């Protein structure tokens, strides 16, 4: 895969394999969003960074609801919220050897992601 960095305000693009259209990643200025555009004629995805405690959001194409990514403080979890009325997913990072967990919606059991040390899995 090729990653090409534009000059100044030019976008970066990522090109996969032969004959495939590149993906463009453009960084906005100041409060403007970043966007990622795939191939020909497809709608861009927007990634906007909130200020301070505001969430980041990722918006796909036309008319679709944004996904919100909010970073908790200290030991608080991060959450990812999809669209309207959907329950957020929580991502909590454990300390030291504790696992990370990803929790989906209400009442669902968390998924644990544990990274072993060295050759552990």
UniProtKB/TrEMBL annotation:
Top-rank taxon: Eukaryota
Region annotation (Disordered) ranges: 1-121
Name of the protein described by the UniProt record: FMRFamide-like neuropeptides 1
Organism the protein comes from: Biomphalaria glabrata (Bloodfluke planorb)
Encoding gene per record: LOC129926843
């Amino acid at each position: 895969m090729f990653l090409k960095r534009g000059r100044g305000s030019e976008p970066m693009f990522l090109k996969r394999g032969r004959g495939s259209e590149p993906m463009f990643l453009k960084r906005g200025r100041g409060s403007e969003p970043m966007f990622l555009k795939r191939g020909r004629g497809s709608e861009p995805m927007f990634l906007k960074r909130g200020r301070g405690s505001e969430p980041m959001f990722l918006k796909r194409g036309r008319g679709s609801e944004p996904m919100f990514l909010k970073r908790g403080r200290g030991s608080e979890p991060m959450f990812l919220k999809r669209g309207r009325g959907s329950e957020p997913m929580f991502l909590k990072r454990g300390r030291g050897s504790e696992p990370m967990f990803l929790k989906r919606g209400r009442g669902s059991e968390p998924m644990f992601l544990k990274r072993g040390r060295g050759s552990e899995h």
